[in-house]
Amino acid sequence: MIHQIPLKLADCAMYIEKMNKSYCPELSNDNFIRTGFPGMDQEIKGIPYGRITLISSEILHGKTSLALSIARHAAMKQKIATVIVDLQGKDCNASMRLIAQSGKIPIQLLMTGGLADTDWGKIVHALGRLDDAPIFIKDDKPDSIETLISELEATHGTNRIGLVVIDGWFDAANQTGIRNKDENSMRKLHRFAADSKIAVILTVQLNQALRRSGNKIPSRRDIPFEISNMAETVLIPYNHARSLSDEGKSEEPGVAVYKRGNDPAFIPMEFNADIGLFSCGNGRAGTKKKKG
Predict the structure, then answer these.
(1) What pTM, to 2 d.p., does this model score?
(2) Do 99 and 130 contact (CB within 8 A), yes or no?
């Protein structure tokens, strides 16, 4: 049978969309947001709707970069309305980081100058892609968790938010973030995520006072209990070789995954700190049991 080209193009488009999703078949339902990293999606299925996912690390190990990479992929690739709450209060804010990631331009050049002629084309391209994405940014610090939730609910009512990223929920070094960051605040945020069916990502700096692991890969125990207890999944990026146990061999840089009810896992990933961009390592996600 002879078909007009629009019909064949439609068939091709459906096939391409199907194959694009097939790299991680378990994500064919609507319960998760894909992270953009196949190894991570295979391990945790994605960022769950209605739950809190925690990204925590030592300073300059990429917690904000990983969170923004996931947010960017959700908004630009999956067209999921995404709110980024920037509590860091730094010059290198979320907007600038997104431009650096999208254009693959060193953040330092964006902040201080010295751009090459070719960089301007990358910036224009990045700005165009970001402008088309359903991304909303809040860069003023709310007075309370109630104020923040109220603003998120109002935005959700008009834009149907799918993902909220709160960068800087707790910074142990600078004491920035939401005031009164106690268990009660986490419960309110957890209730908001569950009631609204919105996926929530929090970035939290590891509390160095709790660190007992030496050169081991950090774990949930290195995060204040009242914060980690409310999270379904904890992702801990680190950018130099660490071991999973005192006796274990060193692993290349990557992301440690602690998912409730599962054994801890390690996902090899590379981190370009200049751009603030993560990329897959060997692409495999292997589960490793804790020792001791």
Answers:
(1) 0.80
(2) yes
